């Protein structure tokens, strides 16, 4: 009986080995010129971040189904020290395009550009000082997202006071989010007060992760009469969104689908504005295949579906607004006095 069990175990191991070998053998050879391979390396937020990582992978999967890519894979980074190693995993296997998501991978992406000239690298939310033939920067206009959030807040408020909570203004993206919000409120009407607070002079080690500050700041703004609150800045911003949800006021998120990311603690989030990464992944792949590379690309933005209690006209107005911003028909009047 024991001998039979051992024999069965050997057969199972052998079968699993064969399946694994078959899977490897069935994967297209990315070094072949007639095979197009694309990969994604995420930051440490994981593949199910309800934002850039999740959308980028969805874009790659859709590209595979549409015949735009022969092979797609991803690595969800667990440790920031693994970024370069994870990128190298794909370059060593001949992948044609490697997407890296988030500003945290900016240095690792740039280092790979010189080391692997045969591959094309695409950095989402990464800005580079120089131009390289095999490097594409895709950013999403924070001022436009903040502007749309400001217009939305102006339409939702009942008290006539709206507020925004952002990470330090020393980070250009955060400044554009919140000043865009201020401009959007003013564009909608001059009769509404907009209160904007940045996390200035805070502990640098808590950058983007100061949830307590975000929560306390939002609480103070709500007590000052704000009944709609916009927030940006990672976990710092999420602290503000949680406070809004607890106090029963409307909240507007950025950077990802904050309602999905926060779950019950984000029950007050009515919508979020963030980049259309899924769309941009496929557009970039088409351009690379056609040899028409744009080194600097401004991506399209989107908003999450509003609660059914809101009228369809509200969503339609947002779609029209985002379209006008994308076409340049409407420009957020954001000036930098810093």
**CATH architectural group of the largest domain:** 3-Layer(aba) Sandwich
Beta-strand segment tally: 12
Based on CA atoms alone, the radius of gyration comes out at 23 Å
**Series of H and E elements:** HEHEHEHEEHEHEHEHEHEHEEH
Helix count, DSSP H or I runs of 4 or more residues: 11
Q: Provide the domain count.
A: 2
* CATH level-1 class of the largest domain: Alpha Beta
Gap from first CA to last CA: 80 Å
Give a brief outline of the structure:
With about 350 residues, the chain is α/β, with parallel strands linked by helices.
Features:
Rossmann fold, 2 domains, 6-stranded parallel β-sheet, 6-stranded mixed β-sheet, 11 helices
Question: Overview of this structure, please?
Answer:
The strands form 2 sheets. This protein has a 6-stranded parallel β-sheet, sandwiched between helices. The protein has 11 helices and 12 strands. Helices cover 45% and strands 18% of the residues. By secondary structure, the chain is an alpha/beta fold. The protein has 2 domains: 132 residues, Rossmann fold (3-Layer(aba) Sandwich); 156 residues, Response regulator (Rossmann fold, 3-Layer(aba) Sandwich), CATH 3.40.50. The chain is elongated.
């Amino acid at each position: 009986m024991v001998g039979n069990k051992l024999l069965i175990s050997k057969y199972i191991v052998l079968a699993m080995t064969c399946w694994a070998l078959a899977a490897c053998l069935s994967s297209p050879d990315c070094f072949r010129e007639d095979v197009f391979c694309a990969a994604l390396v995420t930051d440490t937020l994981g593949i199910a971040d309800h934002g850039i990582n999740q959308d980028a992978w969805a874009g790659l999967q859709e590209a595979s189904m549409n015949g735009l890519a022969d092979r797609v894979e991803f690595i969800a980074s667990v440790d920031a020290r693994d970024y370069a190693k994870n990128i190298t995993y794909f370059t060593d296997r001949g992948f044609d395009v490697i997407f890296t998501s988030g500003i945290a991978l900016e240095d690792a992406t740039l280092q790979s550009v010189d080391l692997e000239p045969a591959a094309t690298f695409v950095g989402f939310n990464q800005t580079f000082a120089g131009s390289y033939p095999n490097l594409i920067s895709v950013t999403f206009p924070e001022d436009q997202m903040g502007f749309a959030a400001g217009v939305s807040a102006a339409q939702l408020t009942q008290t006539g006071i709206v507020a925004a909570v952002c990470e330090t203004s020393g980070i250009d993206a955060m400044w554009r989010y919140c000043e865009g919000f201020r401009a959007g409120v003013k564009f909608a009407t001059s009769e509404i007060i907009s209160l904007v607070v940045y996390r200035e002079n805070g502990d640098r080690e808590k950058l983007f992760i100061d949830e307590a500050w975000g929560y306390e700041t939002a609480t103070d703004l709500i007590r000052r009469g704000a009944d709609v609150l916009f927030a940006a800045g990672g976990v710092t911003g999420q602290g503000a969104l949680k406070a809004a949800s607890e106090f029963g006021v409307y909240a507007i998120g950025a950077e990802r689908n904050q309602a999905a990311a926060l779950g019950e603690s984000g029950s007050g989030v009515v919508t979020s504005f963030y980049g259309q990464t899924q769309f941009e992944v496929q557009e970039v792949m088409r351009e690379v295949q056609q040899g028409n590379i744009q080194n600097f690309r401004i991506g399209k933005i989107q908003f999450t579906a509003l609660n059914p209690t809101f009228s369809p006209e509200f969503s339609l107005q947002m779609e029209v607004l985002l379209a006008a911003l994308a076409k340049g028909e409407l420009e957020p009047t954001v000036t930098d006095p810093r």
